[in-house]
Amino acid sequence: xxxxMKNPSHPSRTIAYxxxxxLSHVIDPQMPHWPGDPSTRYKPHAAIASDGFYLRQVTIGxxxxxxxxxxxxxxxxxxxxxxxxxxxxVLPMVVIDVRDRAAxxxxxxxxxxxxxxxxxxxGAIALGSLVALWTGWQAKWPDPIAFLNQDDRGQLxxxxxGEVATRFLLAERAIAGVGIDxxxxxxxxxxxxxxxxxxxxxxxxxxxxLTNLDHLxxxxxxxxxGRLPLRGGSGSPxxxxxxVP
Length: 245
Description:
This protein is α/β, with parallel strands linked by helices. 18% of the residues lie in helices and 30% in strands. The chain has helices at 48-51, 99-104, 112-122, 144-148, 163-172, 194-201, and strands spanning 2-7, 10-16, 19-22, 41-46, 55-59, 67-69, 90-97, 109-110, 130-134, 160-161, 177-180, 205-208, 221-227, 235-244.
């Protein structure tokens, strides 16, 4: 199929795709939540039997489930989730498979060598791409114990982007953002949230808790991010659709 995208200030672009894949987990109260974050709750508000229609009240944190972080997460003067334009939310995605390294080391961070190996096989990462890291962690969802992998001291252990690799991607490949199938784009043991801060400070997109990355090719996919434009929000649960060529 072909999807034509029109923007008054830019030439028309066409997305050719054969399949659409949902990259977001179903939102459920029992899903993993970052320690200390608000829990997710569904509260009945109206029932068909008594009110003639069905309605629930939903309580959820801005960084719960598959979600997008906003720049004001770390800088109160920066953009909120409602400030991201529609054109920023449709972009090409490349997928880097580090499952073998993540299986051997839960604290693994993406390296320059990983990027060089990927580009040797697939070509240079195109400017303006969102780089998604497929660590295999999506298979651990929705088990909070396995997914967050907390040790006895409360430290989380899951893989992510290494700082040097992130700086390279921003400076040399002008990426539009990063995504991952864990609860953070930084390794769980990295408390400074460096990749998060670097990408958000550059005006980029940060997606966490992605799924179905195993259905995507290394390159060629276009994603569309549906976020809640919460006024001043630090983030939002999102539905991410992948248009696979």
